Amino acid sequence: MTRPADFWNSVYDDDTAPWVIGEPQPAIVELEREGWITGRVLDPGCGAGEHTILLTRLGYDVRGIDMSPSAVEYARANAAAQGVPAAVFEVADALTLGDRADFAGDPPGSAPAFDTIVDSALFHVFGTEDAERAAYVRSLHAICKPGGVLHVLALSDTEPGFGPRISDTLIRESFRDGWTVEDLRPARYRGRITDTVAQNAEGLEVSESGKVDLAAWLARIRRE
Ligand SMILES: C[S@@+](CC[C@H](N)C(=O)[O-])C[C@H]1O[C@@H](n2cnc3c(N)ncnc32)[C@H](O)[C@@H]1O
């Protein structure tokens, strides 16, 4: 089983989440600059909300969802503090989005709502859990319009680091049916060293502010 909401809540409540870095991921900022984000956007597992805040500020129609109420509370406060109170967040389980008529239509999958999905460090959470990973891929398929794009930024197993690190093969194999992996390249995911990961930080290049750019994959996957 992947971690329950209580685990995710605790790292926001204690402010020990190593992915809460006070800025959007540079790889996602770059994606937006290159024009890879269009139309209605979903930010699943939005965490502190940095990507929803960034995209709302830039004028996108975007919604951040997270299964952790503490994450959503954190994201709303973060958006207000950054002067973007219009950023929209809600508590939702990314594994069952197809059940939402407003996201997927009724019957499920008949009217997918999203043109672009920006997954920053959620897919890898399901990495070793075959059933949950498959449920997540099905859930995204139901809500992503045909021809729409899913971006996956996931920690990579090619270098030492912390967090759930996965292979590029796992990404390709997960999106065989109903999707086309158009691009899959090495990237970086920025994290910060907190008490929860300090023991795994040996040998990593850590900046003066305690941040580290971990090996990652960036995939662009088109919904057929
Ligand atoms: C590693 S964090 C990444 C947060 C953010 N996207 C980022 O890159 O900073 C993963 C997030 O996914 C959320 N999460 C985990 N399982 C989830 C699920 N089944 N549905 C929705 N959110 C989930 C966690 O609460 C956590 O906020």
UniProtKB/TrEMBL annotation:
It comes from Nocardia amamiensis. One of its GO terms (molecular function) is methyltransferase activity. CDD domains: AdoMet_MTases (cd02440). It comes from the Bacteria. This is Class I SAM-dependent methyltransferase. One of its GO terms (biological process) is methylation. InterPro entries: Methyltranfer_dom, SAM-dependent_MTases_sf. SUPFAM superfamilies: S-adenosyl-L-methionine-dependent methyltransferases. Keywords: Methyltransferase, S-adenosyl-L-methionine, Transferase. Residues 40-152 form the Methyltransferase domain. Pfam families: Methyltransf_31 (PF13847).
